[in-house]
Design brief:
DNA Polymerase III, Chain A, domain 2, 37% strand, alpha+beta, twelve-stranded antiparallel beta sheet, nine-stranded antiparallel beta sheet, 366 residues
Length: 366
């Protein structure tokens, strides 16, 4: 049959989140074709959507090679057919094929997909909430509970033991869920607009018919820590100066050479702020005039984190070893690292920095 390559590739890429990187389940690295649908399934994600192919096309196709081949092809349409051992594609003067197993053993149809009457529209801000919090979930598998995003009935939140963030909203869910960070992030590119709930699975779908389902902890199985007290902070209001993100990127060039502590230093005092990144290879320092009249503060922070924060928000509260941003429904708190005693001290009010031996050196111009 004649198939539009771009449309077929688009469908395949939407179900790609359900492909396993390693074959934990037999055929979990394959694209399953059955009854006019395409499926993928790993241990935690299931995807399905209409294939656009003849319903007689059935089997398990090696998905990685099929994706790579379709991305390289520079044709609009192609002829597709299947045999017992191959998914075959051809056009004018070319022919290609990817290995296929006729027998399907992956239990793609065993996941309970709710009826149409059980689907509900997602809250308009749900995907915004997920995008704001998911990066704060931990990548450290030893902190297993913190590798999940917590979908509470009244908020979406995540924490990695250093950073925590919460987005207040009515999610519409009947009970709380916990979904793996590496799973839920796929929602942001799929344009999902509806959700449904079933035992241990949370389902989302878009207008094209894609359904992506996440194996989730739910109800009484949810044991996410209560962040409410930790999100509160008394401190000093502060506004990062304009252009801080770009300057932080420069400082991060040098702090990145410290693999165990890629941190830049911030020194704040009335009307002055200094940003500094350094290593044994080099350094970058930038001074700012700021409208600040609070107490003197010094802290270390990840340059990547600081860049990400200040591109969205500049107003914050700096407290005892913590920084907090609160904007509308969004609350973010991160731990700050205290400078080490051997770190170069903050600049003095006369624009000079005392050296280790007590002699003054002129400051660098901005």
């Amino acid at each position: 049959m004649k198939v539009n390559r771009e449309e077929f590739l688009r469908k395949l890429e939407t179900v790609a989140p359900g492909l396993s990187k390693r074959e934990f389940l037999e055929q979990s690295t394959s694209l399953i074709l059955k009854n006019g649908m395409m499926y993928t399934l790993d241990q935690e994600i299931s995807c399905r959507c209409p294939s656009g192919l003849n319903s007689s096309f059935e089997g398990a196709v090696h998905a990685k090679k099929l994706l790579e081949f379709l991305r390289k092809l520079n044709v609009s349409d192609m002829d597709v057919e299947v045999t017992d051992s191959e998914f075959s594609m051809k056009g004018k003067r070319w022919l290609g094929g990817v290995r296929m197993e006729k027998k399907i053993v992956l239990p793609v149809e065993e996941i309970d997909i709710p009826e149409d009457s059980e689907w509900y529209d997602l809250a308009p801000e749900f995907l915004t909430a997920v995008s704001e919090v998911e990066e704060c979930a931990s990548k450290d598998q030893t902190l297993e509970v913190l590798t999940y995003v917590h979908l509470h009935t009244n908020w979406v939140e995540a924490c990695d033991n250093t950073r925590m963030t919460r987005y207040y909203m009515n999610t519409g869910f009947e009970k709380p869920y916990m979904v793996k960070r590496d799973s839920i992030k796929h929602l942001l590119q799929l344009g999902v607009s509806q959700y449904a709930e079933s035992f241990n699975w949370l389902h989302f779908r878009n207008k094209s018919g894609l359904i992506i389902s996440f194996l989730s902890l739910c109800g009484d199985m949810v044991n996410f820590p209560d962040l409410t007290k930790a999100l509160k902070l008394d401190g000093h209001p502060f506004a990062f100066p304009h252009g801080i993100a770009e300057e932080c990127e420069k400082a991060g060039i040098f702090s990145a050479d410290n693999p165990d502590e890629d941190l830049v230093r911030i020194d704040i005092k009335p009307l002055k702020m200094r940003l500094k990144g350094e290593s044994l290879i080099g350094r970058y320092e930038r001074r700012f005039d700021i409208p600040y009249d609070g107490k003197e503060l010094s802290f270390l922070i990840s340059p990547k984190l600081l860049c990400g924060i200040t591109r969205k928000h500049t107003n914050c509260i700096v407290g005892e070893n913590k920084l907090k941003i609160e904007s509308g429904n969004y609350v973010f708190v991160t731990s700050l690292f205290a400078p080490k005693p051997q770190d170069i001290p903050a600049p003095s009010s006369n624009g000079h920095s005392p050296s280790v031996d007590g002699k003054k050196t002129s400051s660098e111009s901005q």
